Amino acid sequence: MNNIQSYIKENKNRFLNELIELLKLPSISADSAYRNEVLKTAEAIKISLENAGCDSVEICKTDGYPIVYGEKIIDENLPTVLVYGHYDVQPPDPLDLWDSPPFEPVIKNTELHPNGAIFARGACDDKGQMYMHVKAMEFMTSTNQLPCNVKFMIEGEEEIGSANLATFVKNNQEKLKNDVILISDTGMIANDVPSITTGLRGLSYVEVEITGPNRDLHSGLYGGAVANPINVLTKMIASLHDKNNHITIPGFYDKVEELSKEERAEMAKAPFSLDHYKKALDINDVYGETGFTTNERNSIRPTLDVNGIWGGYTGEGAKTVIASKAYAKISMRLVPNQDWENITQLFTKHFESIAPKSVTVKVTPHHGGQGYVTPVNSIGYQAASKAYLDTFGKTPIPQRSGGSIPIVSLFEQELKSKTILMGFGLDSDAIHSPNEHFGVFNYLKGIETIPLFYKYFTELSK
Amino acid sequence: MNNIQSYIKENKNRFLNELIELLKLPSISADSAYRNEVLKTAEAIKISLENAGCDSVEICKTDGYPIVYGEKIIDENLPTVLVYGHYDVQPPDPLDLWDSPPFEPVIKNTELHPNGAIFARGACDDKGQMYMHVKAMEFMTSTNQLPCNVKFMIEGEEEIGSANLATFVKNNQEKLKNDVILISDTGMIANDVPSITTGLRGLSYVEVEITGPNRDLHSGLYGGAVANPINVLTKMIASLHDKNNHITIPGFYDKVEELSKEERAEMAKAPFSLDHYKKALDINDVYGETGFTTNERNSIRPTLDVNGIWGGYTGEGAKTVIASKAYAKISMRLVPNQDWENITQLFTKHFESIAPKSVTVKVTPHHGGQGYVTPVNSIGYQAASKAYLDTFGKTPIPQRSGGSIPIVSLFEQELKSKTILMGFGLDSDAIHSPNEHFGVFNYLKGIETIPLFYKYFTELSK
Predict the structure, then answer these.
(1) How far is A287 from chain B (nearest CA, A)?
(2) Do residues A367 and A163 touch, judged by C-beta distance below 8 A?
């Protein structure tokens, strides 16, 4: 494409400032206290799509937060790219671990981002990566180089399970009709090692509640004679992994796709330093399922992690109490072929079955989604691969990610099209963590690479 | 003693109102936010002792909350009773489980308290039981029937481990010199089954912190490959009990006093209904150490309970995070001969030893205390027994309690005198729990019984 570099050079500061303004909005979908901020963010997205040259932009109501839709149809005979992203963000806590306030973006240099990185909740996941597409669109329309039709679907509930997206997609199949779906909500191996995510893990997220006595008890008068819901919960959770860190839920592995020696050998080619990995996390050792490497454990294998646990007295000082209830939030990452609803049922059945008679158990499913794999021989993948080669000077490595974007498999099912995951973030960008950031290099490189995907996808579609 | 009943009848409402005023003060020693309220409470105790006829009352500074001391010496040749109690209370949370605000006392009838019970934090533990002694003193002085010398020592740090009491006692041995120590901070079996506590459990209270990665991580990108501090903590805590609910800490049981068949048979005589016990707590089954009855499990056997646990995301909705840290507050109830400092060391050593290399562990001891047993053939016990017989019409049953009053063993060591535990509360009074209460019957019965203890103790001492 013509003068994309110069266009980016000229507009770099504006591109950064526009993103910074967007990052100032605390669009935390998980916390209803931020409802108005989330809705404000949808408005801001609408305006940015209009400014980028979309013809008709609308804020589509759902039973939850709205979906911002925009499109530019230049020729019915040309292919159509559907861009998906989300404008909501993860809760920022623990706040005290942020070096700067999560919703007051600042640009700082880091070892991996010598040209600076934008620090803010949502900088990488997904406002920054979503906004690359808006700016790429702006470039293509303002320089009359848009080679095909484009549709944008930006939702506000991705971080809480996209509860209302499925209905929207099912009810708008014609409107959302496309030839390929483009999403930037994943990462790449390194700024000098471009990669494209070809697999995602599924997810089952549940909350469990253990109830013992009908009230908090004095641990002296009752201790030892009554089941302590916290002790019981720890025993139940601990029992979900065996000594090899295999998950003990009956049937959990039945559908798990086992990769061939060759596939695992191919995976192992991705550059990886265990020492650097441990150093970056400040841990003495890694930990996981026996018989698999670190990269396999967090991509092609299912997992079970406690994301939160609470019960009893957690304040200052000491309280000698046996709590009436104990709680945990537990999520399972799933691999392709594991059905998340089936796994949720297996978990619930098993968790209830291992509870001692002295307590009662309640399992509440939060949300979930299926895993996904995209073939590297598709037109979409090839177009993306060529785009990266042009801008990074290297052919990207196909890579399985451990993360989940549940709606990707939904899109394939409902819209019958494949998704290409062009992620420009790094694993070290601390998404979902304090001090989330997104490299300025990555942001601009994304804006530069995306238009080339459109170009090659249109050419290869002929 | 003369006209004690009539005196109580005449002054019943004033006795209740004075206690209610005292209960309105939120003297929560564990939470520094309530510092001024705790200090205010000490002032109120000082005034109440002066009004009860103590000659010299002083608020004695410590490095923490002050100790209120008062005395009335009528004759150096007569025996001296030292009354101990505490004016601080447990934190009231969870607040939402209280039927009425914890510091707005109300009198309501209950199944076990048909004549009404005062509902408020501290009603039973220990403001109500401590204030019985103040009113008993008032009766004896105002009717010129005080048979011996009396000293009061009311502290404000019992609920946080009496950190500064030991120093105070060590530095004031002459001032605190006595022939018997009287404490009402325990319970009795039932309003028609009086009992005297002859044994207390010791306590070791620790806080543990597990640290994994140096920051919260995305559970998709890292899940399965990095030790999750919460999962690890549950495994470590779960491993502290074996399948028979024996505690697995090496050396933990070494000093545990094993009771004889005869002693256990004697204990078993105390009236107890397992069905009523389960019904009262709304549990399907009890739970505890194999080979021991419920009453043994919570009195003559040591225990390990998690009193609080927290880590990760505990807010509304879902967050797919692997927390950097996980925490728990753990307390162990100990039996006579188990040294709490030794047990704390054994716990720390063991807990650190079972941590996987992939995390770091920090164990912080909060506080602790030794167990205690008092002989039933002492003058003090005999005097108490006769007092109960007069007022309840029944000889009280000697009973081991599962609770801890760490300072009792300290008193014996420093002041060389035995403690008599004349408790008038019921296990069902929900001390340390929401809706703590204290029966009006029990409060008044205590005021009636205590002067008789003074009478008989003085007579038996001749």
Answers:
(1) 5
(2) yes
- In angstroms, the separation between the Cα of residue B314 and the nearest Cα of chain A is 5
Contact B224 A289 (CB under 8 A): yes
> What ipTM does this complex have?
0.78
User: What distance in Å separates the CA atoms of residue A78 and residue A458, rounded to the nearest whole number?
Assistant: 7
Residue B178: the pLDDT is: 98
Contacts of B361 (CB under 8 A, 6+ apart): B208, B209, B210, B211, B351, B352, B355
The total number of structural domains that make up chain B:
2
Percentage of residues of chain B with pLDDT beyond 70: 100
How many residues in total does chain B contain? 462
Q: What CATH number did the domain enclosing A241 receive?
A: 3.30.70.360
Q: Which among B214, B221, B224 has CB closest to A282? A: B214
Residues recorded for chain A: 462
Residue of B nearest to A285 (CA): B358
Q: Do B88 and B207 fall within a single domain?
A: no
Which of A201, A315, A359 is opposite residue B31, by nearest beta carbon? A315
Q: Does residue B126 share a domain with residue B10?
A: yes
What is the predicted pLDDT for the residue at B374?
Answer: 87
pLDDT digits 0-9 by tens, A182-227: 999 999 989 999 999 998 899 999 999 999 999 999 888 899 999 9
β-strand A321-322 against A217-218: which pairing, if any? Answer: antiparallel
From B225, B231, B328, residue closest to A237, measured CB to CB: B231
Q: What digits encode the pLDDT tens for the residues A436-457?
A: 999 999 999 999 999 999 999 9
Q: Is residue B264 part of a domain?
A: no
Together in a domain, B316 and B443: no
Our measurement of the distance from residue A441's CA atom to the centroid of its chain's CA atoms, rounded to an integer in Å, reads 21
Query: How many Cβ atoms from other residues are within 10 Å of residue A442's Cβ?
Result: 28
**A289 part of a folded domain:** no
Of A215, A287, A307, the CB nearest to B313: A307
**What would the two tokens of residue A56 be?**
């008709």
- Kindly state the helix (H) or strand (E) to which residue A455 belongs, with its residue range: helix A440-461
**Rounded to whole angstroms, what are the CA distances from A178 to A76, A150, A457, B121, B301?**
11, 9, 12, 65, 70
Chain A residues with CB under 8 Å of B284 CB are 357-358, 360
Residues of B in contact with A305 (CB under 8 A): 219, 223-224, 228, 230-231, 322
Contact by Cβ (8 Å): B312, B321: yes
**Residue matched to tokens 């004549």:** B115
Cα–Cα nearest to B154, from B197, B124, B185 = B185
Residues of A in contact with B433 (CB under 8 A): 215-218, 321
Kindly report the average pLDDT of chain A as a whole number: 95
Longest dimension (CA), chain A: 79
At A35, the amino acid letter reads R
Tell me whether residue A358 is in a domain: yes
Its domain, for residue A320, covers 202-256+302-369
Chain B CB contacts of A283 below 8 Å? 212-214, 226-227, 358-359
Across the interface, do A224 and B333 touch by the CB < 8 Å criterion?
Answer: yes
Burial B79-114 (b: 16+ CB within 10 A, else e): bbbbbbbbbbbbbbbbeeebeeebbebebeebebbe
* Bridge partner list, B334: B202
Helix (H) or strand (E) holding B15: helix B4-23
